[in-house]
Specification:
The protein is an alpha+beta fold and 185 residues long. The chain has two domains: 76 residues, Ubiquitin-like (UB roll) (Roll), CATH 3.10.20; 74 residues, Orthogonal Bundle (DNA polymerase, domain 1). 35% of the residues lie in helices and 12% in strands. Strands 2-1-5-3-4 form a five-stranded mixed β-sheet, sandwiched between helices. The structure holds FE2/S2 (inorganic) cluster (2 copies).
Length: 185
């Protein structure tokens, strides 16, 4: 099925197998491998992306369900030559070790700060409880999100604006559909 949606502000059109998840489509057809697959049944949060501004488990959505929507993945956070304050804070505060959970953590944290620019540590822990990390013990993650909130409140509003714009941008072009080669071809 032909599916057209916006990813990080760029419209893409892909030929999607109805059984493929949004995570599969993002990783294998859009080349956006920052969206990680851990549990593949909605528990770990590694695959979290924003769909029309709301966090979604990309492993629980079919790609065809994204038709007409705006998706933001972890690749949409950084600017051309600058990291998002959340990304910088995760580095500085040791919010990651192996990094497998990090894309989903960053997307969930970004949504948290979009909805509450000054969250308490308790709220950060509660809101991030849907994202599992096997490495860090979470303290560095909470520290990083609190620090990024401080930075973003202090005036770096351009970052949040940029990500929001990517979720709503009118795409400048439509990519040709990427089709699987025929069997044996
Ligand atoms: S891979 Fe989607 S929630 Fe774990
Ligand atoms: S940094 Fe390894 S799972 Fe979180």
């Amino acid at each position: 099925m032909d599916v057209t949606f916006s990813v990080n502000g760029e419209r893409v059109r892909v030929d999607v197998e109805p059984r493929h998840t949004l995570a599969d489509v993002l990783r294998e057809q859009c080349g956006l491998t920052g969206t990680h697959l851990g549990c593949e049944h909605g528990v770990c949060g590694a695959c979290t992306v924003l769909v029309d501004g709301q966090p979604a488990r990309a492993c629980l959505m079919f790609g065809v369900q994204a038709d007409g929507s705006s998706v933001v993945t972890v690749e949409g956070l950084a600017g051309d030559d600058e990291l998002h304050p959340l990304q910088e804070a995760f580095v500085v505060h040791h919010g990651l070790q192996c990094g497998f959970c990090t894309p989903g953590m960053l997307i969930s944290a970004m949504h948290l700060l979009d909805t509450d620019p000054e969250p308490t540590r308790e709220k950060i822990r509660e809101q991030m409880s849907g994202n599992i990390c096997r490495c860090t013990g979470y303290i560095g993650i909470v520290d990083a999100i609190a620090a990024a909130a401080d930075v973003m409140r202090s005036g770096d509003t351009g970052v949040s604006d940029r990500v929001s714009a990517r979720a709503q941008e009118t795409p400048s072009h439509i990519e040709e559909p990427k089709r699987s080669p025929p069997p044996g071809g």
